[in-house]
Structure formats: C-alpha cells, structure tokens
Specification:
four-stranded antiparallel beta sheet, Aspartate Aminotransferase, domain 2, 2 domains, 16 strands, single chain, alpha/beta, eight-stranded mixed beta sheet, 15 helices, Aspartate Aminotransferase, domain 1
Length: 415
C-alpha cells in the first residue's frame, strides 16, 4: 500500500499480483478510516545514517542512563527474577503506581491514589484504551488544531467525528472551544497543554482556567496528555485540568521522554468509575503491561535522583532548541515563521503563502535532511504550509547543517 498523506486515505498499488492477493480479504471498515503514521513511514527513510532527521520525536539517546537501567535490570533479575518474569496484575506494579501518585503530589499538588493509576504499554496504549471505552462511531471528539497525529490515528479507529479547535499562543481559541462544546454532545476533548505536539504551545494558566470553566458545564471528558509536562525548561508547572476538574479529567503520562522509550511504559490516571472500564479494556487487550520493564523502572527510580536527571534533560533540550532557533534566524528566508516553545521537543514552522510543505519535504530529503510536513496533524485538510521540526535527537553540528540545507530548499521554492 501507498499512503496518500494529503487525503489521509489508503490506496492499493495496482499490480495484478497485489490485487489478486488483496481480493481475498475483507477488512473492517474502520481500517479505511485510519491513517498510517506518517512518522513511522519517514523513520524508515531516515535509517540512512547520512540523513539529518528533524522528522521523528525521538529523545536524545545520549541522555538515556543505560548504566543505571542495566544495574536495575540486573538487581531485579538477581533478587526476584522468577516473580518479575511471571504474569502480573492488570493495573500494574503497585510500587511503580505509588511512585507516580507521589510524583503528582510533589510536582502538581494532585492528591491521587495508586488505585487511580493504570500502567500501560506507552502513552499510545493509554489513548487506545480511552478510545475503546468512550468513543462509539459517530461520537464527537474535540481536538486541537493542529492536533497530535498519534491521537488522530488511534481515535480514528473508533470512527468519531472530529471537531478541530484552533490553537492560539495562549492555548485553544476560546470562541472555537466554546462553540465546539455547545449542545453537550462532545464525548471528549483531547489536548496537550504542556509543550503541545506538534506546535510546542503551552497553555497559559488563565487559558486553562477558562477552558475548565467551559468544560465544567458539560458532560465532556477532558483527556489531558501530559507527555511533555516534565520537560518545561523553566522547571515550573501550570495547574493541570485535573486540578480544576478532578472527576471530569483523564490524565495520561509517559516514561518515554524521561527514562527510555524502548521500555514502553506509560500510564492513565482516571476517576474510579473510568478506571474500572479501562482495566476491563486493558485485560482484553494484553492482560498487563510488560512486567519486567515495570520492575526495572521501579528499581531504577527508587535508586536514582530523577529530579537531577530531568534537570539534565531540560538543560540539554533548551540548548538544542536555542541552537535550532539561532540557526533559523541566521538562515531562513523572509516570510518563514516559527514558535519558540517553553519546553518539549518540537518547533512549529509556518512557510510563506503558496509554499507547499510536501514539496519542501520531498526536496529536503534529496538534500539529506528529513522534516515532517504539518498535514497529518490536521483532521480538516489544513497544514499544507507547515512543518514540525524535532530538535531533541540531533547534536548542534547536525542542527546547524540541517537547518542550512532546509533553508536553502525553502529559498529555492519561494524565489
């Protein structure tokens, strides 16, 4: 299959052998409505070591504490290996859930019980489980515009009607947000208030309060994705929606950005009635998250200074972001604009009118630099003049050279 990224549809490559093979299968309708992940397809291209990639969302591999994780793994296997390699409970390893609950109290002043936390196979599974228990075909789902493509992909499996809400520098456009929620027919609002993916926007504290006030008069559930909350460069945190709407908010988190993505550990924090349904869906999905990874993570976290580790990550990412912005200021042609995020891993670029992000994507690959067109982040056909750039997985030299190449490509298209 080829992916038509512009339309978000799947097409069959019309060869006789392929058609003969495919005619034997009758796939579920939902599959035709679910886009492939553009990022996963691009990552196949960027396996070429000669390509400088700003396309993915990979953490800096130099900041993964391989030694500490190896020691934790050895200790778990040595001290309790037979238990760690056995089946376990669906909810997840209790000491790890306690750690998450304690950190919510320390970081966000949230009083959360470990019983309100479910360990998942990365935050992507959290979104899948939420979709399973809440979204029926035709349900209305409000989502940021641009929105996180992983959420768009996973929610699309459940055949909702998406209602995009435009993002402004302070957060969701209030008029659009209120309009989307009118009539009390929206099942969920999904958003990333901290260093939003892809835009890098962080909602202001005032905008969070205003959105919470609008939500409080509805039956809409806020799904608050906090994958980047620990990566705010200032080290401070604004109150989450859950602080204002404790019984109306599902909060998700991830160890991928602060520990190691390959461990595939995330979590959902939800009110008891929601948690009961999430556990049932989790049992039906995979019984429980990789128990050995949970035990290793718990052991590592109990023996390391996580705050110090996160400060190191923040400082490194701030330096990498500053390097990318400085390179763009020096190299980009007039008319190109970009965000200056307070944290996270991404910068959002807007191209001059008439400049196609797909053309830039194709031309840039020829110059050995990979970028991500903004199109997959829109559910309504937008984003044709936008790019998402990742700065966390490239060192300064690569950033400078890559931005120089990208700027040359953009200049060739507008001059």
């Amino acid at each position: 299959m080829e992916r038509d990224f512009m339309a978000g549809k799947q097409e069959v490559v019309h060869t006789q052998d392929h058609e003969t093979l495919c005619c034997h299968y009758s796939f579920a309708r939902r599959m035709s409505r679910t886009p492939k992940s553009f990022i996963r397809e691009i990552l196949k291209v960027t396996e070429n070591p000669g390509i400088i990639s700003f396309a993915g969302g990979l953490p800096n591999p130099d900041l993964i504490e391989v030694g500490g994780i190896a020691e934790a793994a050895a200790a778990v296997l040595r001290d309790d290996g037979r238990t760690a390699l056995q089946y376990s409970t669906t909810e997840g390893y209790l000491p790890l859930r306690r750690f998450i609950a304690d950190r919510y109290k320390k970081r966000l002043d949230l009083d959360v019980s470990p019983d309100e936390i479910l360990i998942t196979s990365g935050s992507q599974q959290s979104l899948d489980l939420i979709g399973k228990i809440l979204i029926d075909p035709g349900d209305r789902v409000a989502i940021e515009r641009p929105g996180y493509l992983g959420a768009i992909q996973v929610f699309s499996l459940y055949e909702p009607v998406f209602l995009p809400v435009e993002l402004r520098p302070e957060g969701p456009d209030l008029f659009a947000f209120k309009t989307a929620l009118e009539g009390d027919t929206v099942k969920i609002f999904y958003g990333i208030p901290n260093s939003q993916n892809p835009s890098g926007i962080t909602y202001s504290e005032e905008r969070r309060k205003e959105c919470a006030e609008i939500l409080s008069g509805t039956r809409t559930i806020a799904v608050e994705d906090d994958a980047y909350g620990e990566l705010q460069f200032s080290g401070s945190s604004y109150p989450p929606f859950k602080k204002y709407l404790p019984d109306q908010t599902i909060l998700t988190g991830s160890f991928s950005k602060i520990l190691a993505p390959g461990m595939r550990l995330g979590w959902v924090c939800a009110p008891p009635a929601v948690m009961e349904q999430l556990v049932v869906a989790k049992q039906a999905s995979d019984l429980h998250t990789n128990y050995l990874s949970q035990r290793i993570a718990s052991r590592y976290l109990s023996e390391t200074d996580l705050d110090a580790h996160i400060r190191t990550i923040r400082a490194a990412y701030k330096e990498q972001q500053n390097c990318m912005i400085a390179a763009m200021e020096a190299e980009m042609p007039e008319g190109v604009t970009w965000t200056n995020p307070e944290g996270g891993m991404f910068i959002w670029v807007t191209l001059p009118a008439g400049c196609s992000s797909m053309d830039i994507f194709s031309d840039a690959l020829k110059e050995q630099v990979a970028v991500l067109p903004g199109i997959p982040f829109y559910v309504d056909g937008g984003g044709k003049d936008t790019l998402r750039l990742n700065f966390s997985n490239a060192h300064a030299g690569q950033i400078i050279v890559g931005i120089r190449r990208l700027s040359r490509v953009i200049r060739s298209r507008i001059e």
